[in-house]
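Action item from last week, closing it out:
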Amino acid sequence: MRHDETPTLSPPGTPGTHAPGSPAPGPSPWMLRIVTVGLVLAALNLRPAITSLGPLLEEVRDTLHMSGSVAGVLTSVPPLCFAVFGFMAPRLARRFGAGAVVCVGMAAIAAGLLLRPFVGGTAGFLAASALALMGIAVSNVLMPVIVKRWFPDRVGTMTGLYSMALALGTALAAALTVPLTDALGGSWKTGLAVWAALAVVAILPWLPLVRDRGPASDRPAGQAPKPAPALRITRSRTSWALACFFGLQATAAYITMGWMPQIFRDAGIPAGTAGVLLAVTMAMGVPLAFVIPRVASRLRTQGPIVLVLSGCGLAGYAGLYLAPAGGAWLWALLLGIANCAFPLALTMIGMRSRSGAGVVRLSAFAQSTGYLLSIPGPLLVGVLYQHSGGWGLPLALMAALLVPQTVAGMLAGRDRTIEDEC
């Protein structure tokens, strides 16, 4: 089974190779550039709705009179929305086209981010957040699909590119939300709403793709469609392993994004510095999210990468328990490396199927099932924090969850495809 990328081979139907009776020419270079820009801008918007909230969570809780348990519910809303709406993405993509769905998704993110600080009350805040997260959910699922469709010979490179952009958007929102809030008058409402502007910009490159109805299959754009294979995705052990790995890494990521600034603030670190520490954690994904998919796509099995990431996570959690303030920067770096299980999971989604149609099913199943599994984690951390009065039990829970995450990642990283198992 070959894993290395072969950019020197042109896909069938590319300009210069078209012959009578052969498939229509492939996508033009300018269209590929538009898709690339669209992927990058969309990825930049897939996390600010979440990481912009972490540094200001205490202010939001005070204003909306949230308890620790309710705040835990708030940090569980992202995976819930990702699970529910992620299942809808393949059907929407088949009916309207993946480009149109992502375009609407960016519009939903912009509307949700603009509305949620000003609708009033906890219920309104949650509802507007859910609107933004709905747009994120469908875009999450369709990113690997779009990569497979438009860049079938560069899956690792393009996955790394948009994963890097996703990590950059995550880090920028964490680092800049508090300074922007201060610069715009000190209101947390304005500091959260300002991120809607980035989503508005992301709508633009997807507009030319709204009419693209090509199915997310294993063909490049412009080729004749192939019938999708009938896959019983739930019969594949690799599918379940990948879903569990995805869900457990998502649990760790959303606990980190939602609660890590509060851990540092409780240790005596100022809110602005706590936001920067979260940004450091997220920023580690900028270079690593580009490197890891390229390395993973060249390995027969991805188990060694899983072990390294899990080891960094265990060290980071131990540090947060023993010396949260004294080694804050080191723990932020280690947890940032551990969070790169996300681009690894995305890369494995693209590698564990031979066809784009298989990637559609696997992406929807692994992400939606995974996010469903991740829902209790952030909520349980909030409950444990409120009732124990400290971070010992929550951190023990986070460390314990790394064990099944490692096992699932080792199984998902084996050299096989879902077509072999189904």
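Closing note: The CA atoms of residues 159 and 347 lie 7 Å apart.
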